[in-house]
Amino acid sequence: TRSTRPQRMLKAVQKNATKGSPESVISAIDYFCKHSEWAMNVGDEKGSILDSVVTEVNPSTVLELGTYCGYSTVRIARLLSPGTKFITLEFNPANVTVARQIIAHAGLQDKVTVVEGSSGDLIPQMKERFGITTFDFIFLDHWKDRYLPDIKLFEECGLLRKGSVLLADNVICPGAPEYLEYVRNSPRYENRYYPAHLEYTKVEDGLEKSVFLG
Ligand SMILES: C[C@H](C[C@H]1O[C@@H](n2cnc3c(N)ncnc32)[C@H](O)[C@@H]1O)NC(=O)c1cc(-c2ccc(F)cc2)cc(O)c1O
Ligand SMILES: [Mg+2]
Known about the structure:
By secondary structure, the chain is an alpha/beta fold. It has helices at 5-16, 22-35, 43-57, 71-77, 93-105, 119-122, 126-130, 147-156, 171-175, 177-185, and strands at 61-65, 85-90, 113-116, 137-140, 165-168, 189-197, 204-212. The chain is globular, with a radius of gyration of 16 Å.
């Protein structure tokens, strides 16, 4: 049967990227998406903004929602200090399989734990399963209508502390209007919008950074 787009992306990484080099894995995926097949990775333009926020926060605990093929997982993990706890959640098992192989090709398998399941089920288990008390940095890149229920879940589960940073992809395209309205109208968040474009296109998109004020 025909391969899937994530499987073709993995083949491109295994063929074109140097094992153990996160930069070459990132470049191989961007090349694949620009010259072979578009895919919903955060991409290079928004990825550079992601890099700058991760570097600025220098987090000790990180959560990513929506691993997909592991492109942003590799971008984040390559910047983390040793000993950082990094968890990424993905509920499509086929994507989990591809992501683990792409992360391993980059040599970052010891920096991150890819957990199969849905954010709604797994967020309440973070403390008991992974010994996390609060997250310093959270990257939201899963179903766009899950952003709002999941930020409320973070609050309810006490997973945010004063200064926790949330960065949300696709707040314009496909869009997360209810999430934007919530964080921008809440006195508990300080927000900044980073204008950019939908990965590998000229379509308007952007990232919203929200700092929890406690
Ligand atoms: C949602 C996907 C990313 C992944 O997230 C996993 N997932 C989902 N819900 C959960 C959960 N609740 N828990 C754990 N994992 C979860 C899934 O299985 C995908 O692998 N991302 C997108 O759909 C996405 C789409 C576009 C896009 C933009 C313009 C177009 F014309 C078409 C598509 C751009 C982007 O930048 C995206 O990020
Ligand atoms: Mg995205």
